[in-house]
Amino acid sequence: MPKTSTATCRSALRSLFPLLAAAIVLLLAQPAAAQSRIKDIAEFEGIRDNLLVGYGLVVGLNGTGDDLGSAVFTRESLIGMLQRLGVNARSQDLDTDNVAAVMVTANLPPFARQGTRIDISVSALGDAGSLLGGTLLVTPLVGADGEVYAVAQGALAVGGFEAQGAAEQVTRGVPTTGRIAAGAIVEREIEFDLASMNSVQISLRNPDLTTARRIAEAINGFTGLPAARAADPGTVNVAVPPTYSGDTVALMTDIEQLPIQVDQAARVVIDEHSGVIVMGENVRISEVAIAQGNLTIRVTETPQVSQPGPLAEAGETVVVPRTNIEIDEDDERRLAVLPAGVTLQELVNGLNALGVGPRDMITILQAIKAAGALQAEIEVM
């Protein structure tokens, strides 16, 4: 009896192995919930860029600069620069087309220290034809408070070009804009003491109540303390725990790596200009019947020439109109029923089965929303 029982158990286990293997495969095949790091969906207070702007002159152009007769600001700027260098150019008749007035823009990175270099962009302000081969003279870059935070200078790198002859002109790209890699030096720092902060604010890039609460719960689970609280859909307040006192950077480093399942509202975004439709995965449709068809009227004109025979004694050559009218009512289109609770994929498959194009799909989605069957928000760009 014991031998028979053991053999039976082994046989039963062998029969269960395929089932267990199939169950494991099914579990592994289940799609995991998409998760994102906090650093990819939110930003920390104080870590941000600052915009800089300046006005300057680009010299060394090969006859493609501003016309000093029409660009008064370029002329006055050139005269003022020469006078600061000890050259009296006010009484002389300036006539050069190798100078262009430009606007210089840059982003001051967070915690940029004095002496570091940043990239800048240069754009023509007047009627210059091209900035190719030009050199930007010393240009102070100011912030929103009017203070100078960087100084720019250097040779421009222009991606576009322009060539013309007596009868033809070729332009590639935009020759009136350029960049200077590491073309500005930071002269003033923006003070922000991050290490001594007692609390940190996390700002969501896409505000959402559920996502904000999940971030707070993830931080509290990591620290083991009720340190985080969702203040609103776009802000999570985090009190620095005692274990991170004086080391806020370490706290932020650990927090930004926490995985979060981002929640999103059911939304359909429509671009009327290009016909682009973007639908989120949570879009649902109540039971609705859809029929789509267009009335097409095609009018074709094929005029014919009528003339008398070669031996006719009378007659004249005339043009006789011939008109053909065709009407296509799309009779082959049928009424389709979409059941309640269909998913995004089922909705797209159903509309594609009707032969609906992007333009008609926009109208259908708006009609479904008007009927109260689209459980989503429609945003028209």
Counted up, domains total 3
**Biggest sheet features:** 6 strands, antiparallel, barrel
**How many helices?**
7
**Coarse morphology:** flat
Mean pLDDT: 80
Task: Explain how this protein is built.
With 381 residues, the protein is α+β, with helices and mostly antiparallel strands. It folds into 3 domains: 50-186, no CATH class; 199-260; 268-303 and 320-380, no CATH class. The protein has helices spanning 2-29, 38-41, 72-84, 209-223, 248-255, 344-353, 358-370; strands at residues 36-37, 42-44, 50-59, 99-108, 117-124, 135-142, 148-155, 161-164, 169-172, 177-186, 199-204, 228-232, 235-239, 259-260, 267-271, 276-279, 284-285, 288-290, 296-301, 304-306, 318-320, 323-328, 336-338, 374-375, 377-380. The strands form 9 sheets. Strands 3-4-5-10-7-6 form a 6-stranded antiparallel β-barrel. A 4-stranded antiparallel sheet has the order 2-11-13-12. Strands 16-15-25 form a 3-stranded mixed sheet, covered by helices on one side.
Label this structure with key terms.
six-stranded antiparallel beta barrel, 381 residues, 24% helix, alpha+beta, 7 helices
Task: List the topology elements.
Blueprint: H1 2-29, E1 36-37, H2 38-41, E2 42-44, E3 50-59, H3 72-84, E4 99-108, E5 117-124, E6 135-142, E7 148-155, E8 161-164, E9 169-172, E10 177-186, E11 199-204, H4 209-223, E12 228-232, E13 235-239, H5 248-255, E14 259-260, E15 267-271, E16 276-279, E17 284-285, E18 288-290, E19 296-301, E20 304-306, E21 318-320, E22 323-328, E23 336-338, H6 344-353, H7 358-370, E24 374-375, E25 377-380
Parallel strand pairs: 15-25
Antiparallel strand pairs: 1-14, 2-11, 3-4, 3-6, 4-5, 5-10, 6-7, 7-10, 8-9, 11-13, 12-13, 15-16, 17-24, 18-23, 19-22, 20-21
